[in-house]
Amino acid sequence: QVLLQESGPGLVKPSQTLSLTCTVSGGSITTAYYSWSWIRQVPGKGLEWMGTVAYSGITNYSPSLKSRTSISRDTSKNQFILHLSSVTLEDTARYYCARRPGFMYDYWGQGTQVTVSS
């Protein structure tokens, strides 16, 4: 059983950088050929893919967020971390991490609510 757990601040101020950590248990983030993604859901809207880090460490980002998004890894802790810079009120959302073995996601975290407010 693979478990993913998001963690990070629930409240950030506009213009700050949001950093969220996904801690994975039951499987290594370096195991071929899995990819690990960050996805968010703004209230009243659908899911939005933000970016992915592959088992190899190669990253891929949504074009609409690419200028503000990066994903790093701490393989010693089996974690991958989302960094979203220059946040605005529109970045208020529930943020999820998920595993993708192919074209579909098979394991998700519970999600963490992030509110951007001054």
Molecular structure report:
The protein has strands at about 5, 10, 20-25, 35-40, 45-55, 60, 70-75, 80-85, 95-100, 105-110, 110-115. With about 120 residues, it is mainly β. The chain has no helices and eleven strands. The strands form two sheets. Strands 2, 4, 5, 6, 9, 10 and 11 form a seven-stranded mixed β-sheet that branches. A four-stranded antiparallel β-sheet has the order 1-3-8-7, with no helix packed on it. The model has no long low-confidence stretch (mean pLDDT about 95). About 25% of the residues are buried.
Describe this structure in a few short sentences:
It contains no helices and eleven strands.
Mean pLDDT: 96
| Helix share, percent | under 10%
- What's the end-to-end separation, in Å? 39 Å
Strand tally:
11
Low-confidence stretches: none
As a percent range, the share of strand residues is over 45%
Outline the biggest β-sheet. Answer: 7 strands, mixed
What's the tally of helices? 0
Class computed from helices, strands and strand pairing: mainly beta
**N-to-C order of helices and strands:** EEEEEEEEEEE
Tell me the overall shape: globular
**Spatial extent as radius of gyration:** 13 Å
What is this structure's SSE topology?
Layout: E1 3-7, E2 11-12, E3 18-25, E4 35-41, E5 47-54, E6 59-61, E7 69-74, E8 79-84, E9 93-100, E10 107-108, E11 112-116
Parallel strand pairs: 2-11
Antiparallel strand pairs: 1-3, 3-8, 4-5, 4-9, 5-6, 7-8, 9-10, 9-11
